[in-house]
């Protein structure tokens, strides 16, 4: 089993486990061994799955504004955790390939392996939920047909993205691509970088 096959299997296990209770407040019960790549991937997708449903909830037109504000802050915190974990996965790959010397003409990819994995995790969620819609008995036949067409595209995208990720990892392993990780350096959560936050602090 190659990397993306493993990742896809782990992502779908996380999604299925979440939907046992389908509750954004449910606690994660990661079934994989400590320090294993599978455990990291499971944790990554669990964050994505919870955030997927938080985004659904906040779009309720009848939501209480105070609840919406709290949800927005929860989503912001989740985004930060997601970014931190993606960067942790990139660190895992850097360690894995630390003894590889890139060739003199090695290229730099437009995104790191972990950010490509991030896209695969989100894609697993899209496939899961589009499949539900394509098979929802309470929906119209037209709705199901439209969702099946979209699902077919998503599944094709999954094959292409998986191939691209596996090829990228192979290219890194053989020195054809060099890895270089840039921290995202998000500013909106930082009291010293977000002007709304630091100006408020100066006014006290």
From TrEMBL:
Its source organism is: Chryseobacterium antibioticum
Which InterPro entries does this one have? DUF4254
What is the protein's given name? DUF4254 domain-containing protein
- What's a Pfam family this protein contains? DUF4254
């Amino acid at each position: 089993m190659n990397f993306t096959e493993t990742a896809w299997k782990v992502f779908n296990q996380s999604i299925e486990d979440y939907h046992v209770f389908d509750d954004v407040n449910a606690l994660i019960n990661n079934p994989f061994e400590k320090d294993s790549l599978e455990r990291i991937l499971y944790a990554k997708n669990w964050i994505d799955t919870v955030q997927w449903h938080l985004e659904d909830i906040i779009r309720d037109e009848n939501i209480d504004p105070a609840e919406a504000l709290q949800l927005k802050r929860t989503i912001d915190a989740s985004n930060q955790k997601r970014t931190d974990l993606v960067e942790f996965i990139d660190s895992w790959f850097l360690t894995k390939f630390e003894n590889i010397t890139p060739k003199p003409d090695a290229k730099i990819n437009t995104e790191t392996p972990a950010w490509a994995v991030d896209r695969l995790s989100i894609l697993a969620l899209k496939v899961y939920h589009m499949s539900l819609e394509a098979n929802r008995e309470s929906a119209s036949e037209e709705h199901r047909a439209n969702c099946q067409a979209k699902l077919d595209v998503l599944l094709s995208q999954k094959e292409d993205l998986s191939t691209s990720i596996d090829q990228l990892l192979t290219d890194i392993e053989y020195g054809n691509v060099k890895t270089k990780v840039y921290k995202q350096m998000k500013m909106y959560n930082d009291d010293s970088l977000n002007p709304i936050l630091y100006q408020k602090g100066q006014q006290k």
